[in-house]
Design goal:
The complex is a heterodimer of chains A (about 725) and B (about 400). Chain A is built from 28 helices and three strands. Chain A has about 725 residues and is mainly alpha-helical. In chain A, strand 2 and strand 3 form a beta hairpin. Chain B is mostly helical. Classes of the chains: A mainly alpha (about 725), B mainly alpha (about 400). Chain B: It comes from Hucho hucho.
Chain lengths: ~725, ~400
């Protein structure tokens, strides 16, 4: 339905042909888009739009009406859309010269790709499922007419879409083992309307199956097993899924929608993602009708459903994204609707716990030099205290070296930056500082370096575990728990290259900024500008605080020098009282030297380090904005590609080159799926970035307040000491006579 | 840049380093000063009841070179060999400050308006401080002379105070400077020679060793204090810049953190002023004191040198007289010369003893005054700082 909404917009760009397949891709795209809103916003005008541009639309409308009358409202809705879809697909076929041989090849491609890459096909399938199941019966009839009108062999067009449907359907269905199925026997619904509808589709499916001998090969190869299932109960699955939620009403919506947040990295989760939206839509529809069963209500019902979902699903989404992300991506193909259902809940709970009372304390202590010479390194004791059940015990300790921390960052960054997460960066590698330590100079600066790094690593790790999503990452747990961490071999290169990468990213994003990106969401534009301005200011501030540290150290040294000099002057002074006062002054200055020294340390540790941390973190923030931009770019590129493919097809149509038409059609299907996918990615990444930035800002505010107050308190103490020293000196000065 | 000495600051500086007995018969001060392109014009104001002045109260405009001329005339006057000649005021040096101001003008484009204004204010304040210090140094010189029982009667001094036109004193040319340089080389070589001679008088022997050591140490302390104060000023400048950057950060948005930044910026803006004040007061009460006594101890050393020179001359004259008597040749001439040397030496010794005792008294009093003031100022600033910090931390903690 949202698809239709999209369709309207896409139609504004002049489609070469009215019969052009545009509606179809768009519909697919919409169906997949995460946001319930989109999906349902379009719901109002699907039929109109269809009518406008597709010839068979009128037929559909007429045909759907009877259908709806016969069946219940929801079904009708479901059908209405798919119906049109089903039409458009056939339309393509009609226009094509139905040479079965040519079409078979693209089919294979289509099917293969989804399997290997992401899931363009499954997505379509989802969409088609209802169509095929519900409408196949009437559809066939309907299709026949336009088909015949269009003068090409009617049966063949039918075969193609149906074949698609059949092929695809199993895939998606297999994937979503439909936990609901077992839970809810969907007897009512099936008794009422669907049974009718399904009776036919089944037949048609099988019929087509036989008919499409051409497709036998691909079908068998890829889907022979699923097919069987599909033939037995494909329609049931869809509806059962839908039914289960019906019983559970709104509850179900949440968990289900959760699933589609899962990482699209593996095919299976992808499918889960795609299936669910459709399931959700059906759910909502059914839920309404289930109770009422009234025919007239159809428009209202839909509107209501729309509202409900648009409110629910995005919200749930976000919540889920926080929690579900890592574990979902980690759990392999076995992820299923049923499996993932309980998960979000526990994760959510964890999430809340973390927010409420953070039951995980990490400290890094005992920096220790291991080895000698240039191969020496510092090892740190990483102690964890926790009550979180995800850990094996309540307290544990591991030893880690600096490169392990870098390795952890690389792992986390690789996994999570892609999705728009702000992954806290570790402190930079310092060749200077480390060389000093390696050389074994036990002087002040190397001790300071070690302490500074220890503290920085501690803050880094605390930021990681404080991040509710990152905490769930198995690599984090491994880092904290595992005794024999495999040495991250290439961190040497990583640490250097990693930061180069970050710099490149930054410049990258800069160049991209200049390119364009007509930002649809002002929030991001403003935030990015804010982040960049802040970055600039923090860098400036950092330089200044560093300079203050430098000057304060210099002041300390010079005060020390002056103290010695005054002591000497005092010793040569031949007035006893003055001599005494001068040596007292020397003592005061000596203490001041110490005081300045301490103050310099607190300038550095409380203030400069805080700024350095946030300069690094802002780098990560920018990286996540950048990631969003990349996702957007990918989506745009895909859209452009799709446009090209359509133009190609249009040209082929004009040129009347049917032999290449199937290829073009398949390309379009493929790119449509990609566009949908990428748009969804973009929406998802955008949502993540937004959430992450808000979270980051909250933490930043807290960190800054805490640290700066701490810093001010150190200044305060300095002043108190100062007062003490001078108060002690004053009588000495007065005693000079 | 034109500016006047504010009376209040003037007070701060007045007789800052030396404890002078005030004498109503002759009071000198610098009532005004103008800084022109490369020179400073001091208005020297005199109040006197002495009969050799035409009026009781008058003012003249003098430049640094005229102060130097006056000082040199004292040094060159044999009559004053037995006195510690008040050290000449240092040359006004605004070059560094002017250079900075110029650089600031060049860098105007690369700074925000606030930064520029702030920097400019800072530099102007710095310039003004140097200016006031210069004025104070010149005034101290005149006050010292006016308070000196002998030098105050000096004719040149009176001309300096009264003659209401240019003294047409010119700066030394290159040749004269070279001459001065050689004179100094000879003098210091001679000084080493003279210093090697064991003094017959324990007092002077003691003073000699004391002053040699003291001078070196006060020199060291003076340069060390300068360094210390310089880094203190740099730190204060850093805090200032930190405050303005925090301000920029704070004004970017109106979130809680931004308000927080603004408050901290406000605090730093205040504490940096105090910090700068601390540095300035240390400069005034400590560095300037040490610098003055660096020059004053040099003047005392010069007195000892002159006495030592006279002693050597006297001893040589004695030897020459012995020789002449032995040879019975030019005895009268040698006797005269010996008598002159003896007189000179005795005259110098007589006044030098008192001068050195006075020097010590003045020194102890000046150190006492300055150290007490320093401690009081340090306390005042530290307390001010503490109060600011306490109230700010209180407010910030209340916020969070």
């Amino acid at each position: 339905m949202a698809l239709l909404y999209m369709a309207t917009s896409s139609e504004r760009s002049p489609p070469p042909f009215p019969e052009d397949l545009e509606p179809e891709p768009d519909e697919v795209g919409d169906q997949d888009s995460d946001d319930g809103e989109d999906i349902f916003l379009g719901a109002d005008n699907p039929l109109e739009i269809k009518m406008d541009h597709s010839l068979p639309a009128s037929d559909i409308a007429s045909s759907t009406k009877p259908l709806s009358e016969a069946s219940s409202a929801p079904v009708m809705d479901i059908l209405s859309e798919p119906a049109s879809e089903a039409f458009s697909a056939p339309m393509m076929n009609l226009l094509m010269e139905p040479a079965s041989e040519t079409s078979s090849a693209p089919m294979v491609d289509l099917l293969m790709e989804p399997a290997s890459e992401t899931s363009s096909a499954p997505m379509m399938n989802l969409f088609m499922e209802p169509a095929s199941e519900a409408s196949s019966g009437p559809m066939v009839d309907l299709l026949m007419d336009p088909a015949s009108d269009d003068l090409k062999e009617p049966p063949k067009p039918d075969i193609n879409p149906l074949a698609d449907i059949i092929n695809d359907a199993p895939l998606s269905e297999v994937k979503t083992p439909v936990a609901a199925m077992t839970q809810e026997p969907p007897s009512d619904l099936f008794d009422d309307e669907p049974s009718e509808l399904f009776a036919e589709p089944r037949q048609s499916n099988t019929a087509k199956q036989q008919q499409t001998s051409i497709f036998d090969e691909p079908d068998e190869d890829l889907f022979s097993e699923p097919l069987g299932e599909a033939l037995k109960k494909p329609q049931n699955d869809v509806f059962k899924e839908a039914l289960a939620p019906v019983a559970k009403a709104s509850n179900v919506c949440g968990p289900l929608s959760d699933n589609y947040n899962e990482d699209p990295t593996d095919i299976f989760t992808e499918e889960a993602i795609t299936t669910l939206p459709s399931a959700v839509s059906t759910v909502s529809v059914n839920s309404k009708t289930n109770g009422v069963h009234s025919d007239e209500e159809e428009p209202d019902i839909f509107a209501e459903a729309t509202v409900e979902l648009s409110l629910d699903s995005p919200r749930n989404d976000r919540k889920k994204k926080e929690a579900a992300k890592p574990s979902a991506s980690a759990s392999a193909p076995s992820v299923s609707a049923s499996a993932s259902k309980p998960q979000p809940k526990t994760l959510e709970e964890l999430d809340e716990e973390i927010e409420d009372k953070f039951e995980l304390n990490i400290s890094i202590t005992n920096p220790e030099k291991v080895g000698d010479g240039m191969n020496a390194y510092m090892a740190y004791k990483v102690s964890t205290q926790t009550t979180l059940p995800m850990f094996r015990s309540k307290t544990f300790t591991v030893r880690r070296r600096f490169s392990d921390f870098l390795g952890l960052y690389e792992k986390l960054s690789d996994k999570h930056t892609l999705n728009g997460y702000i992954v806290p960066p570790p402190p930079e590698k310092s060749i200077m500082g480390m060389t000093k330590v390696k050389v074994g100079k036990e002087d002040n600066s190397s001790a300071e370096f070690v302490e500074r790094r220890r503290a920085a690593l501690e803050r880094y790790l605390q930021r990681v575990v404080f991040h509710p999503s990152l905490l769930q990452d198995p690599d984090v747990r491994e880092f904290l728990e595992r005794d024999d961490m495999p040495r991250a071999h290439n961190t040497q290169a990583l640490s250097g290259a990693g930061f180069l990468k970050m710099i490149n990213r930054a410049t990258d994003s800069l160049s991209k900024m200049t390119i364009k990106m007509n930002e649809s969401d002002v929030w991001f534009e403003e935030k990015l500008q804010e982040v960049e301005a802040e970055d600039q200011q923090l860098r400036k501030l950092h330089i200044m605080v560093d300079s203050l540290v430098g000057h304060r150290k210099e002041l300390s040294v010079n005060t020390g020098g002056f103290a010695k000099s005054v002591a000497m002057l005092g010793s040569s002074e031949d007035n006893t009282a003055l001599s005494r006062a001068l040596s007292q002054l020397a003592e005061v200055e000596d203490k001041m030297e110490q005081l300045h020294q301490e103050q310099a340390a607190s300038d550095s540790f409380c203030f400069a380090e805080l700024l350095a941390d946030y300069i690094r973190l802002l780098g990560s923030v920018r990286a996540s904005f950048d990631q969003r931009m990349k996702t957007w770019q990918r989506w745009q590129d895909a859209q452009n590609m799709l446009q090209k493919k359509r133009e190609t097809e249009a040209k082929l149509l004009w040129a009347n080159k049917p032999d290449k038409l199937q290829q073009a059609k398949d390309d379009i299907t493929e790119w449509e799926a990609k566009v949908t996918q990428y748009e969804r990615d973009f929406d998802r990444v955008s949502a993540t970035v937004r959430k992450e930035v808000l979270r980051f800002e909250k933490e930043k505010a807290r960190d800054f307040k805490k640290q700066i107050i701490k810093y001010l308190e150190s200044l305060l103490q300095s002043q108190q000491q100062l007062i003490k020293y001078w108060e002690a000196f004053l009588p000495e000065a007065k005693a000079i006579a | 840049v034109r500016s006047c000495v504010e009376p209040q600051i003037e007070e701060d500086y007045q007789a800052v380093n030396v404890d002078l007995q005030t004498d109503a018969t002759l009071q000198v001060d610098i009532s005004d000063a103008l800084s022109e392109r490369d020179k400073v014009k001091f208005t020297v104001h005199t109040k006197s009841t002495l009969p050799n002045f035409k009026q009781n109260e008058f003012s003249v405009v003098r430049q640094h070179e005229e102060f130097i001329w006056l000082h040199d005339s004292f040094v060159e006057n044999e009559e004053y060999a037995g006195y510690i000649i008040p050290p000449a005021p240092p040359r006004p040096d605004f070059d560094a400050s002017r250079e900075k101001l110029q650089k600031l003008g060049e860098g105007e484009g690369s700074m925000t308006k606030e930064e520029f204004t702030k920097m400019k204010q800072e530099l102007e304040a710095e310039y003004l401080a140097i200016f006031k210090k210069t004025v104070a140094m010149h005034e101290v010189f005149l006050c010292r002379v006016a308070a000196h029982p002998v030098l105050r009667k000096d004719m040149n001094f009176h001309v300096f105070l009264e003659y209401n036109q240019d003294l047409s004193v010119r700066g030394k040319n290159k040749r004269e400077k070279m001459e001065d340089f050689f004179k100094n080389v000879v003098k210091s070589a001679d000084g080493v020679l003279v210093a090697g001679v064991k003094d017959v008088d324990d007092f002077f022997e003691h003073e000699k060793t004391f002053l040699l050591e003291y001078h070196n140490r006060v020199k060291d302390a003076s340069s060390k204090s300068d360094r210390m104060i310089r880094s203190h000023k740099s730190a204060a400048d850093d805090i200032n810049r930190i405050a303005s950057t925090l301000y920029t950060l704070g004004t970017q948005d109106s979130t809680d953190v931004c308000k927080f930044f603004l408050k901290v910026s406000e605090l730093f803006e205040k504490t940096r002023k105090i910090e700068a004040r601390v540095a300035a007061d240390e400069d005034l009460k400590l560095a300037d004191l040490l610098k003055y006594y660096l020059r004053e101890s040099q003047a005392a050393k010069d007195l000892l040198y002159r006495r030592g020179r006279a002693l050597v001359d006297y001893e040589n004259a004695n030897k020459a007289l012995d020789k002449a008597r032995a040879k019975n040749k030019d005895v009268l001439q040698a006797e005269t010369s010996q008598q002159v040397c003896c007189q000179k030496f005795e005259k110098i010794s007589e006044s030098a003893k008192q001068e050195l005792i006075d020097f010590k008294t003045r020194r102890v009093a000046a150190f006492r005054k300055n150290l007490v003031e320093l401690a009081e100022l340090e306390l005042k600033h530290a307390k001010g700082n503490l109060q600011l910090l306490q109230s700010c931390v209180g407010v910030l903690k209340g916020d969070t």
